[in-house]
Amino acid sequence: METALLEASLYTVKAICILDNDGNRIISKFYDDTFPTVKEQKDFEKNLFNKTHKANAEIIMIDGLTSVYRSNVDLFFYVVGSSQENELILHSVLNCLFDVTSQILRKNIEKRALFDHLDGIYLAIDEIVDGGIILEADPASVLQRVALKGDDPTMSDGNFKDVLQQAKDQLGGWSVGWKN
Asked: Does the model's pTM come out above 0.85?
């Protein structure tokens, strides 16, 4: 009897989804072409939600994929991998995502708070998984990286005015003519 050996791969995560309590997409990131169109992705998410929203488990096999999930108040967190994927690895990614989200939202994990901090959640997801490869599963490390990226100055109106004022102050006695 011939046994097929599965080739090892770093591409362990196929998708990360955060859905609301009606099964609607809040955040979804698919890392391969298992579901190439948005319609197929949304159909998968709806099917996943319908199978899990009343269940009291943490793992489900659906459409040939392994999915680990967790819910809190009005949000459902999902991490999806292949059917051969180690559930403990997927669960560590899920726990990291949940813990980081909890810290970013100051333990107020609900839909409204998530929308208020959507940029930080997207950064966290990108720090945890990139292209299906798990980069980090330690919530403290992810939070530190998200905080560092959040501190980067942007050219918003307030910052631009501050930079312009500092330039004027440094030029001091110089005569600079601004033409409109």
From this structure: no
